[in-house]
Amino acid sequence: MIKRALQTTLTKIARSYPVVTLTGPRQSGKTTLVRDTFSGHDYASLEDPDVRSFALEDPRGFLSQYRGPVILDEVQRAPDLFSYIQTIVDQSGSPGQFILTGSQNFLLLRSISQSLAGRSAILHLLPLSLAELLGRKAQPLSSIGRKLPRRKPPSHIDLMDTLFKGFYPRIHDKDLDPQRWFGSYYRTYVERDVREIVNVGDIESFNRFVRLCAGRNGQLLNLSSLGNDAGITHTTARRWISILEASFIVSLLRPYHRNFSKRLIKSPKLYFLDTGLLCYLLRIHSPESLQFHAMRGAIFESYVLSELTKNALNRGGEPDLYFWRDSTGHEVDIVIELGEGFTALEVKSGQTIAGDFFSGLRYWRELVGEPLAPAALVYGGDRSYEREGITVYRWSDL
Fold this sequence. Notes:
This protein is of the alpha/beta class. It has helices spanning about 5-15, 30-35, 50-55, 60-65, 80-90, 105-115, 130-135, 160-165, 170-175, 180-195, 205-215, 225-230, 235-245, 275-280, 285-290, 295-315, 360-370; strands at about 20-25, 40-45, 70-75, 100, 120-125, 250-255, 270, 320-325, 330-340, 340-350, 375-380, 385, 390-395.
């Protein structure tokens, strides 16, 4: 088993809350993590038809069979349990009494907000980070743009191969063919999870919509244009984007809100959270094809955003990540907000650094009035160093 960075946070949180809820996309490793972390707990999977039937028909009797702490897997499939869990934890108050997991964030969080508000800590587990694959710790977000990590570049990994495979644990544990696995994964997601969240009558239209979203990865979200191209209404496009976001398939990177006396872009940018799934949806069939693909840069941006997001979530926090762009075209790819401070981050997939890679960061520093404001560049090369007071990170250092 690949050690997960969230395990430390999960263990700590369970000492303070009677209920801990772990959400994340299907196959991100939630069940493996909680069973390894809480090996002394009883376990029940609501995916099992017999178990689910018992929980739905007699929730009080179902819960009464457990005399100690218990893991309830895919608990959103028996929503009536939440009210009974509330009663139990209000009576006992024992920390770590219930460990809940679910892959449908929308349904799960709605049930928690109705019955377990203030009683449950909520954590999110995305697929593997590169640091987890390499067996090391990710550097804190607060250090990005401020210091270089003292690491040797890993010799056994290749950027294009890494992006093409993506980060779902099963692909790496079993050394599976990514395209075949993602084909099955995506069909299961659409035919099962999506239909449970909302009534999608025309699956073909939804499939077309998702692939159109993949083609717009890294771009400003224009729901009217996206809806027109998919043959659906603006309202439907907005609802379907919400489904993809709640399912941890996509992330919407919001514009940075600080006013620098410039007219700012207000639409979010659309990114897929796993590069392997993104390559599958774009019909990229090999790492060699990705090397020369027109969307290589946008896919690399997805990788960087995803790594930063996992970094924050694995520490039990929320990712305060934004982008900045004004109406004249000046742009910073990612802004990491850290309390009262911030770090500007530029992302380039090229293996060779060009001088104009730093132009956006130079403009940003002038705009904020801080010539030495923390700034960083992540690129597709294999050497980390400092240039013009800007920290340059090779892609494997995140």
